[in-house]
Amino acid sequence: MIFGGFQKLTLLDFPGRVACTVFTKGCNFYCPFCHNSFLVDVTGKEQSIPADEVLDYLQKRFGILDGVCITGGEPLLHPETEEFITQVKALGYAVKLDTNGSFPKRLKALAQKNLIDYVAMDIKNCFEKYPLTAGCATVDMDAIEESIDFLLGGSLNYEFRTTVADPLHTPEDIENIAKRISGAKKYFLQNFVDSGNIICNDVSFSDENVLKKLQPIEENVLKNMKNFAQKYVKNTAIRGES
Fold first, then answer.
1. Residue 221: pLDDT above 60?
2. CA 199, 200, 204, 206 torsion: positive or negative?
3. Is the pLDDT of residue 173 over 70?
4. Cα–Cα distance between 84 and 81 in angstroms, integer?
5. Given this model, what pLDDT does residue 35 score?
6. For residue 70, how many other CB atoms are within 10 A of its CB?
7. The pTM is what?
8. Which end of the chain is less packed: N or C, by CB atoms within 10 Å?
9. Which pLDDT value is given to residue 194?
């Protein structure tokens, strides 16, 4: 397995763990606000890091690190992700998986084999706005719903999260998301930040007039979003809010 990025230390990405993060190449979504646009194309020009290099690092750092975050791109796009996680777990590490929820069968298989300890699932928008927000003509919403229901109904530790951007998201959109995940353990809102590498700078979309205007959500609106969501998910927070 080949990775497109490797962050050797993070105190933020895996709750309660001192971890490292690996970034898989390739994604089936093209979210215009994605700050990892260089990872979306599996044949892109980003660096190539073999799995053996990561595993060797983990062997040397065991006891200093205790967690590994696997993000992307979309990690579950790759069948070989399971084999890599199996090797990581064999070294004694806890594993956090980031996913967009579009591969529920692979998600369930990892959970049933006790290969993942924490899942962070992105919910892109209310379901009516999913294609635009995910940058796709169509999205298999049945798959998204299956992943949501699996996390809500299981014992696996998880969080849902939504990156919010003006004009793609409104407080009403967030309320609709929160209704769908009512009773969830955790829900985070992440405000859009233009890193300079976002997808809408590189790719044409059907509604370019909207996407060229992407801006962070104003603070008062962001707080309204949080308040709307808390009616259904008590543990809703704004990522980075003190």
1. yes
2. positive
3. yes
4. 5
5. 78
6. 22
7. 0.92
8. C
9. 80
Average pLDDT, the chain: 91
Pairing mode of beta strands 187-191, 19-24: unpaired
Please say whether the beta carbons of 122 and 73 come within 8 A. Answer: no
Q: Amino acid identity, residue 229?
A: A
- Lowest model confidence (mean pLDDT) among 2-11, 32-41, 46-55, 217-226: 32-41
The full 3-state SS of the chain, as one line of letters, equals CEEEEEEEEECCCCCCCCEEEEEECCCCCCCCCCCCHHHHCCCCCCCCEEHHHHHHHHHHHECCECEEEEECCCHHHCCCHHHHHHHHHHCCCEEEEEECCCCHHHHHHHHHCCCCCEEEEECCCCHHHHHHHHCCCCCCHHHHHHHHHHHHHCCCEEEEEEEECECCCCHHHHHHHHHHCCCCCCEEEEECCCCCCCHHHCCCCCCHHHHCCCECCCHHHHHHHHHHHHCCCCCEEECCCC
Decide: 70 and 24 in contact? Cβ < 8 Å: yes
Classify the C-alpha dihedral 32-129-111-109 as positive or negative: negative
